[in-house]
Specification:
The chain is an alpha+beta fold. 38% of the residues lie in helices and 19% in strands. It has a six-stranded mixed beta sheet with strand order 8-9-10-11-15-14, covered by helices on one side. A four-stranded mixed beta sheet has the order 4-5-7-6. This is Reverse transcriptase domain-containing protein.
Length: 556
């Protein structure tokens, strides 16, 4: 167990070392995303002395490579616009994508990125998926030779020669069901091109989605799988060995599998290889939980915890103090541009120690003035913490709310912010999407959300009355049903979020009657799902005991 913990700690430390550069805005970081996971790598593409660089600084060049899973789904330009933003922010010279899902019906103008030249190898028409596409920055694309571009029944491959930096760029896609002879033929053509290279030998950058989960890249062996898969994976390893190509990505890119390839014949080409939180979050979270390093008050990014559980725990503390005939003062804090101003050197030091800090508010029972002084001391401690960590509080956004046994009070203690100003006293505070009132009542929150839902309800009801549901096309009926269901399911989660079961009435209109009103409207269409009972789910949460109506009645 000690060895496992040590390995996990070393892994976490290595990850935080790499992650720190990215978080610090290091301009030499390239983001490689594959189906939502991110694996940045920095390409040190410094050319040989005999190669001209067109007057540009070529010490560091960024190459972005990932599986796009459809560049234009339903012919929408969403992903093309996203690529444009990534290219602009990362200033990458190359963007190499697999599974573009393009065909000859889609014009280059629809997928072009400003200041980049597009090289496409589209899938064949009978295939729903596949295809590769490469974007090369204009100042590098002036001298690019397409050595190979082919789409067969299963695979797509591109081989480009970037003369400006003397690099061979290979982009290959292989689906899981690819026959052996088809893949072997594609590899043979790529191998012939690599064999024909003349001195000075170009740098080779080989990337793609090859779907080989059974390759052990450390041992350069294939384990398990079908005979066809083993033969194809073995051929890839043979090609890599013959041309001194080393696999750079070592961590899993999809769940536990390493399906993506980034190989090069220059071990100094990759300066940093990083794996971000989505890939390792399970292992790190398990380690933190098992070793007890996770603060019990941390609710974000933990299993079985959420904003709802944090609100319930917070409200439980308030009610417990009020039951004991003690007032409660809560000061809400706001850190100014936390993600922009955080000192990443200090952050990495803390992460190496596996410590977690996440202050959102300061709460203390108030029995007399000495308790208020202690709360002010707590605030002063936080201000000092901010100075030590090069952080800055946004004092103007601080809020102070007092829960009292007798309800809201105008004579509550006063607290000062870091700049010496008095923290503004509020009767209501919005906390994690829920409006909390100093009298402990959720009336204001319920009213606001019901009014918001009512606006949608009236609009959709008016829309429904304009249609004869039984007379229109079934497909149209389905679309109307989906529209209605989505419109209310989104707001229903807000309406009943974190509300105890006994909080029913709101200005004469009960939550139950409001639900019945919505369900009656939704029920006019056949097989329409009923509105989910979010308040029942919240009230049965196991972390905090259910609050009874008599408990609230005895306090407020």
């Amino acid at each position: 167990m000690a060895t496992t913990a040590a390995n996990a700690a070393n892994t976490a430390a290595n990850i935080t070392n790499a992650l720190g550069n990215a978080m610090a805005g290091n301009p030499h970081i390239t983001t490689n995303t594959e189906n939502g996971s991110v694996a940045p790598c920095l390409i040190n593409a410094e050319p040989p002395a005999i190669v001209t660089t067109t007057g540009r600084d070529a010490d560091f060049c960024k190459i972005i490579t990932f599986n796009i899973a459809g560049l234009m789904p339903y012919k929408m330009k969403g992903k093309t616009k996203l690529l444009e933003e990534i290219a602009k922010s990362e200033n990458a010279i190359i963007i190499s994508l697999t599974e573009s899902h393009l065909n000859d019906e889609i014009q280059d103008a629809e997928v072009n990125i400003p200041k980049y030249m597009t090289f496409r190898t589209d899938r064949m028409k009978h295939r729903k998926k596949g295809g590769v596409i490469t974007y090369v920055a204009e100042h590098f694309a002036r001298r690019v030779t397409v050595l190979h571009s082919e789409s067969n029944s299963y695979t797509e491959a591109q081989v480009l020669h970037l003369h400006t930096i003397n690099m061979i760029l290979i982009n290959l896609y292989r689906p899981p069901e690819c026959p052996t002879n088809t893949f072997m033929d594609q590899l043979k053509k790529i191998g012939n091109i690599l064999d024909s290279l003349h001195t000075p030998t170009p740098t080779v950058f080989f990337s793609g989605d090859l779907n080989f989960p059974r390759i052990n890249w450390d041992a350069e062996t294939v384990y398990g799988g079908t005979a066809e898969m083993r033969a194809q994976a073995g051929a890839l390893l043979l090609l890599a060995g013959e041309h001194c190509l080393q696999q750079i990505v070592r961590a899993p890119t999809r769940e536990k599998n390493l399906l993506d390839v980034v190989m090069t014949n220059d071990s100094d080409l990759i300066r940093d290889c990083q794996v971000l939180e989505k890939i390792v979050v399970k292992n790190m979270a398990t380690f933190l939980e098992d070793t007890g390093l996770m603060n019990d008050s941390q609710h974000g990014f933990r299993k079985s915890r959420s904003c709802l559980t944090q609100l319930l725990v917070h409200y439980e503390k308030v009610l417990t103090s009020l039951e004991n005939n003690k007032d409660v003062d809560v000061v809400y804090l706001d850190i100014a541009k936390a993600f922009d101003k955080v000192d990443h050197g200090i952050l990495l030091h803390k992460l190496r120690r596996m410590g977690i800090t996440d202050d959102t508010c300061v709460l203390r029972e108030i029995s007399d003035t000495s308790d208020a002084e202690l709360l002010q001391e707590d605030l002063e401690t936080l201000y000092q913490w901010a100075d030590r960590n090069n952080m800055m509080f946004n004092d103007s956004k601080f809020e102070h709310m007092q829960y009292t046994v007798k309800g809201c009070s105008n004579s509550s203690p006063k607290y000062t912010a870091n700049d010496g100003s008095q923290i503004c006293i509020k009767q209501e505070v919005r906390d994690l999407g829920v409006t909390l009132s100093c009298d402990g009542n959720f009336t204001s929150h319920i009213t606001k959300v019901i009014n918001s839902v009512n606006i949608r309800f009236i609009n959709l009801q008016r829309h429904g009355q304009l249609c004869d549901v039984n007379a229109i096309h079934p497909g149209a009926t389905k679309r109307i049903k989906t529209l209605k269901g989505n419109a209310f399911s989104i707001k229903a989660s807000q309406l009943f979020n974190a509300l105890p079961r006994w909080l029913r009435d709101c200005n004469g209109q009960s939550l139950d009657s409001f639900k019945l009103k919505l369900n009656k409207f939704l029920g006019t269409l056949p097989d329409e799902p009923k509105l989910p009972q979010y308040h029942l789910r919240a009230s049965s949460n196991s972390i905090v005991d259910q609050l009874a109506q008599r408990r609230a009645d005895g306090i407020f």
